[in-house]
Amino acid sequence: MPILLTIGAFLLMLFGFNKLMGYRKGNITLDLDERYTSSTEQAIAVTEELQKQGKTAEYKGKGHFLVDGLPYIVHKRNVSMRGIPLERTVLVPENK
C-alpha cells in the first residue's frame, strides 16, 4: 500500500509541474534568452521568436496575441534551471 501512495504522489507532482511549466495541449511555450521588464520589449521578442518558428504572430496589446489566426494570452514563468534563471513565456489559448 505505501508503494501505491508513493507512486500516486509522484504522478501528482509530475502532473502539477507540467501544468505549472505550460506543457498543455494547445499552449505555445517559449524560452527567451533574455529577461524582459517591459511588456513591450517582451512582446517584440515573442513575436520575433514565433516568426522564426514559421508562425504568423501579431501583438494586440495587454498580453494578447494573435498567432496563426487564433487568440492567445501571455503567462510569464521564471524558472531556475541548474541555478541559472530562465524566463519562460507560455501562450495560452484564449477562451471565448
How would you briefly describe this protein structure?
The chain has 96 residues and is an alpha+beta fold. The chain contains two helices and five strands, in the order αβαββββ.
Please give a structural write-up.
The protein is α+β, with helices and mostly antiparallel strands. The protein has one domain (26-93). Helices cover 34% and strands 38% of the residues. The protein is built from two helices and five strands; from the N terminus they run αβαββββ. Strands 1-5-4-3-2 form a five-stranded antiparallel sheet, covered by helices on one side. β4 (70-81) and β5 form a beta hairpin. The radius of gyration is 16 Å and the shape is extended. The mean pLDDT is 80.
Low-confidence stretches: none
How many distinct domains?
1
Range of helix content:
25-40%
Q: Estimate what percentage of residues fall within beta strands.
A: 35-45%
Sequence of secondary-structure elements: HEHEEEE
Query: What is the straight-line distance between the termini?
Result: 44 Å
The SS-based structural class is alpha+beta
The averaged pLDDT comes out at: 80
- Counting DSSP H or I runs of 4 or more residues, the number of helices is 2
Taking the sheet with the most strands, its summary is: 5 strands, antiparallel
Overall 3D form:
extended
Record field, number of beta strands: 5
Radius of gyration, CA atoms, in whole angstroms: 16 Å
Give the spatial strand order of the biggest sheet: 1-5-4-3-2
